[in-house]
Amino acid sequence: MGHFLPSNHSSKANTLTMSAVQETAFQEKIDAELKIEAKDWMPDKYRLHLIRQISQHAHSEVIGMQPEGNWITRAPSLRAKMVLIAKVQDEAGHGLYLYSATETLGITRSELIKQLQTGKAKYSSIFNYPTLTWADMGAIGWLVDGAAIVNQQSLRRTSYGPYSRAMVRICKEESFHQRQGYEIMSKMSNGTIEQQEMAQDALNRWWWPSLMMFGPTDSESAHTSNAMKWKIKRGTNDDLRQLFIDRTVKQAELIGLEIPDPDLKWNPKTKHYDFGEIDWEEFWEVVNGNGFCNKERINNHIKARSEGQWVREAALAYSEKKQNGV
Ligand code: BYC
After folding, report:
1. What confidence tens digit (pLDDT) does each residue in 239-288 have?
2. Nearest-atom index, ligand 1, CA of 149
3. Given CB 3.0 to 4.6 Å as the disulfide criterion, which of 23, 61, 115, 225 pairs with 120?
């Protein structure tokens, strides 16, 4: 029958069969916990899924420098200032590893930045909240980095090699960040009444947005099903959120702070904390660009990028000169 078909049909059919074979081999590799590397065959959907997730992760690290950068000049001691500068620098580094990992998938850095600046690519909702007091530096380290660690520890086992290796290193630095924040919170909650109130106020404002970092509930999450099938994500949004809550409640108790959730209660049956309803309307408002600081964050990014253009040009000219042996 084959020769009755249009001449390109059999080659199209062959291509289809070929890609089905490749896709089966790809999934078998994933199921066997083997890593996919940059030059390996992968379905386009897997590639695009990774570009979306890893680049949004990179953007979050870079935009995440802004709320803390705001407090470097106002840190209450030289030690606190040095620690905060080091932490913010680490975040720039995390952004760089993650942009590099994304570039291995065949997209350029300038395209990724364009996607961020035009609102096509998202970054974590948490960085659209303002940092009002020094206690916010504690709350960010403790809660935001704490939430990020729970998520990123699971991502160390992600199926894409370059992303997984970036995560190993990032997690090591992130756990220092979490301790830095918890140290600030524990000092303040053991300090004067005013300091205790500032610490509690910061916890009140950052608790719910931190829970939102894990994304919508599993039933509302558009990407979780493919992400779990391809082992890009190793825990669902709800499972990781629960793990974070279970860990953090005990840490709050230890330093005498109260989690701002009247429905928070240990459930002996599930052996987890039950918790109150997250304000999903607020979450989507912030994700869709209407949070307190969305516009300010992107405008700052555009300004910093344009002011740094000469640095990139100079670095490029220098590297070309070196390559040409001048
Ligand atoms: N904020 O189907 P879903 C840090 C979007 S930075 C904004 O569940 P997925 C730090 C989602 O993108 C650490 N958008 O998505 C830095 C999707 O929209 P698109 C940041 C969110 O990907 C400085 C839609 O909602 N960590 O640690 O399966 C200082 C549907 O969601 C958010 C990472 O980026 C959100 N919170 O799951 C201090 C970790 N949640 O893309 C600390 C890597 C969801 O279709 N990323 N959306 O337009 C992930 O693990 C996953 O991407 C997420 C979301 C769990 C975040």
Report:
1. 999 999 999 999 999 999 999 999 999 999 999 999 999 999 999 999 99
2. 27
3. 115
